[in-house]
Amino acid sequence: MSEPAPADATVSGWTLLGLAMLLVGAALSAPGLLLIGGLTLLSRWLTTLWSRFGLSSISFDRRLGSHRAVWGDEVALDVEVWNQKLLPVPLLVVDDYVTDTLRVVGRRLGPSDRPGRGVLANAWSLLWYERVVRHLRIDVRRRGVFAFGPIRLTVSDLFERGTNSEERELPDE
Predict the structure, then answer these.
(1) Which residue in 111, 105, 101, 108 sits closest to 145, CA to CA?
(2) Of 1, 7, 83, 104, which one has the fewest beta carbons inside 10 Å?
(3) What's the number of CA atoms in the CB half-sphere (13 Å) around residue 21?
């Protein structure tokens, strides 16, 4: 008696379509159909790779230029992301949950499902072993403590298929 296939072993409709195009293209000696079938299979294979391994070996760091400021100062905020693997990442979105009264020069905080929090969103496309640093500035026009973290990392292909997310604690203030 054979065991049922695991849920991850299911074949998508696009994979079946790609295989069918390859078979029909080979039978009819149609190079165009072979090309489209091959590209369809390649696209599905890459989407599966990104959804399974896209977030592995991705590091994210946030560095504040100072942990104290007075009214009217601007505090440096550097965000760094590093793809530490051979697989490139076509789309990485990092949502940093911050105190909703924080003002970042040239940026607007997005809405959040967490009370008193906004989202400082950043998006990148990363090659293999690529490290990128963004230099932002915080405009200090309010008194109080501004909290950072956690962060949500989301990886997908350029068509936003095969999306995978994870949340990491990265507290700072």
Answers:
(1) 101
(2) 1
(3) 18
CA distance linking residue 1 with residue 12, whole number of Å: 25
- 85: nearest Cα among 118, 47, 131: 131
Contact 139, 104 (CB under 8 A): yes
**Residue type at 99 in one-letter notation:** T
For residue 110, the 8-state DSSP code is B
- On whether the CB atoms of residues 173 and 145 are closer than 8 A, the answer is yes
For 117-150, what is each residue's pLDDT tens digit? 999 999 999 999 999 999 999 998 888 888 888 9
Give Cα 83 to chain centroid, integer Å: 11
Q: How far is CA 4 from CA 15, 16, 30, 73, 122, in A?
A: 20, 20, 36, 63, 42
Question: Which pairs from 16-21 meet CB under 8 Å and 24+ separation?
Answer: 18/44
- Which pTM was predicted? 0.76
> Under a CB-based contact definition with an 8 Å cutoff, are residues 111 and 172 in contact?
no
